[in-house]
Amino acid sequence: MTESDKKCQEELISLKKEFEEFVYIVSHDIKTPMRAISNITTWIEEDLGSDADKDILDNFRLLKNRVERLEKMMNALLEFSRVNRTEMELYEVNIPKLVTDCIEMVDNKSEVEFHLSYNLINENSIILGKKLQKVLYNLLDNAIRFHDKEKKNVFVEVSEEKTQYVIKVSDDGPGIPEDVKDKIFSIFYTVNSKDIVDSTGAGLSISNKIIKMVGGTLVYTPGINKGSVFKFNWPK
């Protein structure tokens, strides 16, 4: 290894250490005052009582909502930074059950019809189960959360190949505008305003990092009739 390579490696180690310290400060030291702001706001609301001016109460609710959103974003940043270090256990997973478990976990699915398709040699596989569950959950949650129709259709296709699984999650929602599709894997980016759709904007970036970690690739393509298609391969 040359001196230049050694210097680059030392700088990389130093940058990683700085990033980890930054994430620790964000995820621990800032949470305490944020919770204090939320608690104090609640106490003031209680002191004012139900007869308080409606605009004042609305502003307090807005303040608590923003604090809660900020805390969720910090938790997502912490999760993003720890992708390569947490939930790294290999264990046997039943693929169809993993998919149905993820469906059960998502919210607001009462008006959603799920269409599941499997082409598997063996339903069971020894994989990083928690990581795959996280990716599937995030893609399903996005498909529902950003859908614009009353009746929603979400499709999950899982195919097994010799060296990998190929998984596709698609929907018949509004799709993603062409001019922003390159931004969707950036952490905290959302196509819709966070005031319109309650989301941290971290799900796709976390999923993309997990898939890259295991040696796969996550790709977005627009659906034939609008909608979104997210396809990734998960090496065995």
The SSE order reads HHHEHEEHEEHEE
Radius of gyration: 21 Å
CATH class of the largest domain: Alpha Beta
The second-level CATH architecture of the largest domain is: 2-Layer Sandwich
What key phrases describe this protein's structure?
2 domains; 48% helix; globular; 7 strands; alpha+beta; 5-stranded mixed β-sheet; Heat Shock Protein 90; two-stranded antiparallel sheet; 6 helices; 236 residues
What does it look like?
This protein is an alpha+beta fold. The chain has two domains: 3-81; 90-235, Histidine kinase-like ATPase, C-terminal domain (Heat Shock Protein 90, 2-Layer Sandwich). The chain has helices at residues 3-29, 31-48, 54-81, 95-105, 129-145, 203-214, and strands at 90-94, 112-119, 124-128, 152-160, 164-171, 218-222, 228-235. The strands form two sheets. The protein has a five-stranded mixed beta sheet with strand order 2-4-5-7-6. A hairpin with a 5-residue loop joins strand 6 and strand 7 (228-235). Helix 2 (31-48) packs antiparallel against helix 3 and helix 5 runs antiparallel to helix 6. The chain is globular and about 65 Å long. The protein starts with a helix and ends with a strand. The model has no long low-confidence stretch (mean pLDDT 89).
List strands and helices in order, with pairings:
Elements: H1 3-29, H2 31-48, H3 54-81, E1 90-94, H4 95-105, E2 112-119, E3 124-128, H5 129-145, E4 152-160, E5 164-171, H6 203-214, E6 218-222, E7 228-235
Parallel strand pairs: 2-4
Antiparallel strand pairs: 1-3, 4-5, 5-7, 6-7
Helix pairs in contact: 1-3, 2-3, 4-5, 5-6
